[in-house]
Amino acid sequence: MLRYVLRRLLTAIPTLFVIVTMAFFLMRVAPGGPFNQERGLSPEIRANLEAQFGLNDPLWLQFVHYLGNLLRGNFGPSYNMPDFTVTELFAKGLPISVQLGASALFLALLLGSVLGTVAALNQNKLGDYTVIALATAGSTIPTFVIAPVIQLLFGLTWKLLPIGGWGDGAFINKVGPVLTLALPQIAIVARLMRGSMIESLRSHHIRTARALGLSDWSVVVKHALRGAILPIVSFTGPAAAALLTGSVIVETIFSIPGVGRYFVDAALNRDYTLVMGTVVVIAIFTIVFNLIVDVMYAVVDPRVRYD
Amino acid sequence: MAASETILSVKDLRVRFRTLDGAVEAVKGINIHVDAGETVAVVGESGSGKSQTMMAAMSLLASNGEATGSVDYRGRNLLTLSKSELNKVRGAKISMIFQEPMTSLDPLYSIGNQLIEPIRRHRGLNAAEAHEEALKLLRLVHIPDPERRMKSYPHEMSGGQRQRVMIAMALANDPDILIADEPTTALDVTIQAQILMLLAELQRKLGMAIVFITHDLGIVRRFADRVYVMRQGEVVEEGEAEAIFVNPQHAYTKMLLAAEPTGSKAPPPASAPVVLEGRNVEVTFRIGGGFLAGEPLMLRAVDHISIRLQRNQTIGIVGESGSGKSTLGRALLRLLPSDGVIRFGDRDISTANRQAMRPLRREMQLVFQDPFGSLSPRMTVGQVITEGLLVHEPNLSGKQRDQRAVEALNEVGLDPNARNRYPHEFSGGQRQRIAIARAMILKPKLVVLDEPTSALDRSVQKQIVELLRKLQADHELSYLFISHDLSVVRAMADYIIVMKQGKIVEEGPTEAIFSNPQHAYTQTLMAAAIDVTRFRLSA
């Protein structure tokens, strides 16, 4: 198992290299640059800035420099927020996004699994239809609708939650954004869980467990649920990578200083280093979580063995 | 033993399933009883309701099923017991083993864990005591090295061993009745015999009653004291096993008893041209390996096999699962890469690529075991059987293709109107006829039949065997007949190859092999399949 993990981490290096290379050159193909906005800098200042950041060097040289810095853990300065390095921006924003994302993911897995299981046990009965209706609503109503509705009801009308802001991470400030992030995920997990639980409940070994006179609790939780959890495990990998790296919409609507906004802002502003930093962070999260998922598979299912 | 005490009595049991097409009655008011310590067989073909009867008794019906009537176990109606009362009977007093040893154990828990759970539940033992008890049970069912096996997972065991574990679980709480639902159907014949002997031995030791649900009259003959014959949800005949075998009353019982395939096949003249020849054919599979993963494991599935098939000949390839018989069939058709020389007619096809093989494909066809999985569910029967014509006779008009479909369906004994319907509307036997029509429409010279009758009921098997024989006689076909079922092979093949672990252990003319098997493995196979001595006389 350890060997397998090491091997996977080793193969992550070429993967990251390919991602970094593609992102680097693709971004340069897009017209414009970090210093030609509409307001316009005078040509001299712009030339100075570009020279300072090495943007006049041949592209391959810039790439080599960037790679060299990256290997030393240096993501470079942000072009549009010159007071900060990219590393500083992530050091401030990433913990916030991770907190929100992890809470949302936890909530989604817990509630989604419970709802899905309830639906499966009541297949084609009222409980099932209720869960399916909620799940369909949850996955079709977009975040940018849910978020303002939460703000409106809980914030303005009932004054239970703050309308926005991070409030230094106070619990009450996290409720709105976490709920908004979690709702669609709860819906997805519930649907996944329902399907795989129905299948699991139909399997032959569940019939065996019933024939042995085991209690419903043991049949459902010990035998059916553990088998049904595998699709949820594989869903968790990409979902975690996406949730933990922040959401533009949620962070914008609730004024959360996370990293979700960076990707869009930086891309629009051609803030090359910040875009690259975001790409690298998301890539690392994706690779790591997929690895964790594969390891979890082996933990849940003894038939899965790596060596 | 109190031989006459009735412990289970099923009265006017009806089982209904709610489906989209309305309610379907699977069991139509049957009466069955089981006395202490006796062996009862419930016999029938698929769809007869024999399994659903026992599923209903155990409250294991699918969620759209409902049972009415009564199932009395020692004075209590199991159908009306509360769930918790029922769970004191299930797995304790009445227990059950199933047809599918590969999937009936939970793949995620160790054998020990799964054995201990029902013991603790029903007997209230602590973990250490239950562990001891589980070890005892594994010894009882002759699992070697039980200490180590307690920690094993189901996937680490063979089908026969898993069935032994199932039996151990069923016996854990000293049941009155063991219901065995086709307990050996999914196993190789030699393993079947071992499991049956084990059940007989355990019954002698423990004295429980056994209810056998089976389609296999061989098992009934060797095992049962009393027999119920079921057909379409009704019991059509019941009585002492001996009486039913000697003097069946109902036409259906007579038909079942006569359904054993009979006859034999004369070998072709020595001068008949050779259709297919393989010399030193070898197939090797790579397992694992790859980037940073080390050396792959090489598995030789077919090991230096030579075979020579003449026109109008049927070679039966016999062996248990994993013996390489299907792999050999596929390699000979060049559907798998192989080493060695393969000649088809006068052409060397050992190295022919896909393009070179394509024109030859119409002359070499393949029929598979599973008539349910091998026909596309989204094509009409007509489309399924004429698909090959589109490739091999592209000049035919739609009308001509349709005409050919009609001919092919007539030839396999199906109503030509079937061509506008979809495969799911047909029974297993009819689907196998469709699969055969799909092969025959191309007018092949060679047909590889990979377990074509294994998924079918005996009476249907017999019809398919007769159909294949007729087609062979009409068209001078050559068959490679791959099967683990010796009685079918005996009726079909004039020459037999016995395979084990990728090698030929014995080969020769059918009658020679059957009358005088030389190799120990062949003898074991024969004994397991043909022997009809009873394991147990009535208690």
From TrEMBL, chain B:
Under Gene Ontology molecular function, one entry of this record is: ATP binding
State the PROSITE patterns in the record: ABC_TRANSPORTER_1, ABC_TRANSPORTER_2
Looking at the UniProt entry, the stretches that span the membrane are: none
Please provide the record's keywords in A-Z order.
Answer: ATP-binding, Cell membrane, Membrane, Nucleotide-binding, Transport
Q: Which SMART domains match?
A: AAA
Question: InterPro entries in the record, alphabetically?
Answer: AAA+_ATPase (IPR003593), ABC_Ni/Peptide_Import (IPR050388), ABC_transporter-like_ATP-bd (IPR003439), ABC_transporter-like_CS (IPR017871), Oligopep_ABC_C (IPR013563), P-loop_NTPase (IPR027417)
Topology with respect to the bilayer: Peripheral membrane protein
**Presence of the UniProt keyword Repeat in the record:** no
Q: Which Pfam families match?
A: ABC_tran, oligo_HPY
Q: Give every ABC transporter domain span.
A: 8-257, 276-526
* Compartment list: Cell inner membrane
> Mind telling me which GO cellular component terms the entry cites?
plasma membrane
The GO biological-process annotations, alphabetized, read as: peptide transport; transmembrane transport
Q: Which family does it belong to?
A: Belongs to the ABC transporter superfamily.
Q: Identify the PANTHER family for this entry.
A: DIPEPTIDE TRANSPORT ATP-BINDING PROTEIN DPPD (PTHR43297:SF2), OLIGOPEPTIDE TRANSPORT ATP-BINDING PROTEIN APPD (PTHR43297)
Q: What is this protein called?
A: Oligopeptide transport system ATP-binding protein
